Amino acid sequence: MNPSRRRFLGSVSRAAAGGAAVSLLGAPAILHADAPKARVVVVGGGYGGAIAAKYLKLADPELRVTLIERNPVYVSCPLSNEVLSGERNMESLTFDYRGLSRRGIAVMGDEIVEIDPEQRFVRGKGGAVYNYDKLILSPGVSFDFSSIDGMSAELADSTLPHAWKAGPQTLLLRRQLEAMPDGGVCAIVAPPNPFRCPPGPYERAAQIALYFSHHKPKSKVMIYDAKDAFSKQGLFQAAWKEHYGDMIEWVPAAAGGNIEAIDADSMTLVGPVEDFEADVINLIPPQRAAELAVNNGLVDDSGWCPVNQQTFESTLHSDIYVIGDAAMAGAMPKSGYAANSQGKVCAMAVAAAINGQPAPAPSYVNTCYSILAPDHGISVAGVYELKDGEIVSVPGAGGLSAADADARTRAIEVQFAIGWYRNITADMFT
């Protein structure tokens, strides 16, 4: 038997073992008999994975690129806080993968549960096997519910939504705010560093206060924080005061804001100094890399994935690359734009390695926008470089919105945020 035909039939039999995989367009998966230059599997179809798959195909059309995502559509976390204020609907955050399919990328609907770095395959929840020469993971984060006594994943889905992955919990939190009496309290429990930034808890406080200002003006937003400082703090606090008066109150860890336990029945948060009752609780747990990475030996003692920061190849397993929130990426934050930038750097590095070329010199960027009122936006931008194997900030590049900016500038920043969102999602999904 022809060796290439034998390999093809072997891959068919392994994929069939758990039932045929199905593309996210609803058609059966097509297994190609022709041998590609290389097989690259990308797991995770968000800000990092979708862009990595696209740019791999752009870099080398001869690659067989397979994107595996468990959800049929992607719902963006960035800008999802506006759903809580009523300024945005979920449809504007939702995207499908048809644009990537049209580029020749095989988009498969499956949840990957196993990675075999020796045999170079990943296995889906139903048993389907996907072979790879190079594997890119953009798995996101998981939540350490056990760190807060009384909290659980089940409570997050039913009663105490974190809404840190946009979708059903975002809508649950919105419904809870609508049902809350005027004069009630919404408590946000902010996690310790590091955590996935968008949607930021401090922007979320502003968007909830915007809703309250229109519909429940006697209500209050309390932020109980595991930290004593946060990014863009001065800009946030000035905007809160300007638009919402005393409606938002921040309690840092030093003042007893580090929540240790929760009683869901009485809606009580237990702190080190005193307890706090609320009508709505948005508890955002501490975070680490997604369970896929944890369960398959891709994290170190920090709970995150160590990588070669030039290429994003795992330092624990060769030919496996980790991008986005799960990766340890030096000075870069865990944000959608950072994941997008890393996806492009990684795609170029993988294409170069497959073609026997050195990895190109990387450059990385990030901008995080926060919309605090319909005409009040702020941002922090960063430009990064590789220095001695570590991603570091470029001195003098990027920076914060000016503290003394006028109203016109703040309104322009909102338009910049919306324009950024439109551009980045168009880049991801078309």
TrEMBL record:
Residues 360-429 form the Flavocytochrome c sulphide dehydrogenase flavin-binding domain. InterPro entries: FAD/NAD-bd_sf, FAD/NAD-binding_dom, FAD/NAD-linked_Rdtase_dimer_sf, FCSD_central, FlavoCytC_S_DH_flav-bd, FlavoCytC_S_DH_flav-bd_sf, SQRD, TAT_signal. It holds the Pfam family Pyr_redox_2. Signal peptide: none annotated. The keyword Acetylation does not apply. Residues 39-151 form the FAD/NAD(P)-binding domain. This is Cytochrome C. It comes from Lamprobacter modestohalophilus.
